[in-house]
Structure prediction request, 472 residues.
Amino acid sequence: MDLQLLITGKRNLARQIYRQLRERILDGRLKSGERLPASRELAEELAVARKTVTNVYDLLMSEGFLEGRVGSGTFVAAGVARAKSHSRKASPLVVPKEWYRLCKLVSQQPQALPFNFELGVPDTSRFPYPLWRSILGSRAQMLSRHAGAYAEAEGYGPLREAIAKYTAFTRAVNCTALDVVVTNGAQQAFALISHVLINPGSSVAMEWPGYERARWLFESHGARIAEVPVDEEGLIVERLPRNARLVYVTPSHQFPLGVRMSLSRRLALLEWATKHGAIVIEDDYDSEYRFAARPLDSLQSLDRDGVVLYVGTFSKVLFPGVRTGFVISPEPIRSALVAARQLTDWHGPLLTQATLARFIHEGHLARYIRKMRRVYAERRQCLFDCLEAELDGWLKPWPSSAGLHIAVEISGVPSADVIAKSASHLGVKLQPFGQRGLALGYGAIEANEIKEGIRRLTRAIKNVSQRPIASF
Prediction:
């Protein structure tokens, strides 16, 4: 045990040790039954005579604070009452008032319900964990030769190469490994971008409705959020404010509506960004899972002026615990992002990055995505069928051909929040957005559970509806 005792000067050594040990017992930092260091060990640590420590231990034992056990050592006596609680005075330090709101938002814990239509949660039960462990073991043996050195802030070289090839093939992203910065998920990519590009008062344009966690992050850096409406073709470019210097979009699968941005809107957005000196953050989440015609290539693939930062993540493709994402950026922003990464947490877990690099290189990622695409396609179709059979006329799905959720527009009920609350009482978890929108994820729920989940949702709507609904 490291007691962290502080000895000053050369006088009253026993008294200094005695007071500190006694105080730690009284305020609960040393608990009943806890073993103290041997007298010789503590004496060496404090650079005092062993007799000084034994005298202190004897005094505390005589007062009933310590007890000796033959052959075991010295322990805090059982049943020692705490004479006072260990408390601190209220700190005079304060944080900006905006953080009080953000603390409440990010601290909300998800509610576990049996019929889980939660968003952003993939099915990890089918992931090939034995294969992952095998690769991880081989990479651990390889990396053990370099364990004494810090890694590159931009990420493990072979992983950056794998990401560059993977995104070029699947999303037509125009990049090399030099353009890639590996991050701890997409959220850290947004954080690094915020460090580099957002100043207090900066105007950041975002889709509305949109991804709240990105919004909260930008707000934490002092950004002023401009809400830009979305229709069936994606972000309405004509509604962008002229002073926006950062535009966040989800063009391949808009969150939460699920629509994809049309080619004309993409070209208009790039032209607008170039004209106004703005930067576009392309969050290409869930683009791997498409179920209809091939979607348009990434926004970044159309960029000829270097205004797009492309952000991706493996958290939904593999499993959330992998915590690996990336941002593909032109210079000089890339160098600034690397510097920001080095100044914050230096680099990510090298072993995870090396394992993922091999997993991609050997073709396991592509095979796993193909397998899961079939699984999710079945669930998606089941969800559409159930909604049409039981809630046609009440819930109108937004057009969507990709991702792990669908969004619906509701009618005939007070609000989406009211439905979500009513559904939760029946064991159904879903996410409201705005006044008239509901999003239902199918990543975390099996196909055979979807039908019962929608039946319960029907009952929930019936309970709060303003007009009759058929019983099922």
The radius of gyration is 29 Å. The chain is about 40% helix and 15% strand. Residues 391 and 458 are 7 Å apart (CA to CA). The chain has a mean pLDDT of 91.
